[in-house]
Task: inverse folding
């Protein structure tokens, strides 16, 4: 975190408090008063719901060991989500007490964690509570925002300078695929804008979980866009897609190694830095 941004956390929280009375933190623009306990699409009020924390030693990009802290609630509806059960009714999940989190974070740091890895769900829809958490930590804490990048302008203002790295998901590209698999037809437009902003704000690692059968509609245009717009970003091409049961509108098969190899060759041709 940058020291100047760290010193502004209290004032940024006051601004966010006002935003939460008519919430527009993401493109859903629900405009509900989360401070009054009302919930919109993400299912969250103004509190922080942490359902898991652990040291993880398999994060890509030289980030391991990483202290992953998971927050419930999400503004997408990815049909292939591996933590979907914590997002369906986030205010009712068993949570770690807010007052215990700073102590746990310091403990994990002593155990060797290189960074504080904020993820979910989608952590940035819980940004108000997370800023309260960051305010209780040392300003030299290395912060990774592990985000779906589906957020709006007030979030940018709230977190500017508070990230050492954005671990940015770029899931799909075709509007049709985004609508069917994520429940957000405007996903690509929003994520592209936020990724370009993030590239100027902090380090950037873009993660793309390769979907079987979506080379031409999603994976190929994603890599070509990255090469044109954020060529210095590191890129993680994940081959660990797991088909949901039932698959619904998602691919029902695992990724063919030949399809993955084809994408690696494209990334190399585009001179992308893969990790």
Result:
């Amino acid at each position: 975190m940058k020291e100047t941004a760290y010193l502004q956390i209290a004032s940024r929280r006051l601004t966010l408090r006002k935003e939460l009375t008519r919430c527009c933190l993401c493109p859903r623009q629900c405009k509900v008063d989360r401070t009054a306990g009302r919930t919109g699409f993400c299912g969250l009020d103004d509190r922080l719901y942490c359902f898991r924390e652990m040291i993880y030693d398999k994060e890509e990009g030289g980030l391991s060991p990483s202290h992953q802290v998971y927050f419930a609630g999400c503004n997408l509806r990815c049909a292939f989500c591996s933590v979907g059960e914590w997002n369906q009714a986030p205010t009712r999940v068993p949570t770690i007490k807010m007052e215990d989190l700073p102590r746990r974070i310091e403990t994990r740091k002593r155990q060797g964690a290189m960074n504080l890895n904020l993820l979910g769900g989608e952590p940035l829809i819980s940004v108000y509570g997370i800023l309260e958490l960051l305010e209780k930590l040392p300003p030299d804490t290395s912060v990774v925002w592990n985000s779906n990048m589906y957020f709006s302008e007030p979030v940018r203002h709230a977190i500017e300078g508070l990230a050492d790295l954005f671990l940015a998901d770029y899931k799909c590209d075709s509007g049709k695929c985004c609508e069917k698999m994520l429940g957000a037809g405007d996903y690509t437009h929003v994520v592209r804008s936020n990724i370009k902003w993030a590239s100027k704000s902090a380090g950037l690692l873009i993660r793309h979980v390769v979907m079987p059968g979506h080379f031409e509609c999603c994976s190929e245009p994603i890599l070509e866009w990255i090469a044109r717009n954020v060529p210095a970003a590191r890129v993680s091409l994940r081959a660990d897609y797991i088909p949901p049961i039932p698959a619904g509108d998602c691919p029902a098969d695992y990724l063919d190694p030949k399809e993955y190899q084809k994408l690696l060759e494209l990334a190399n041709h585009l001179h992308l830095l893969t990790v």
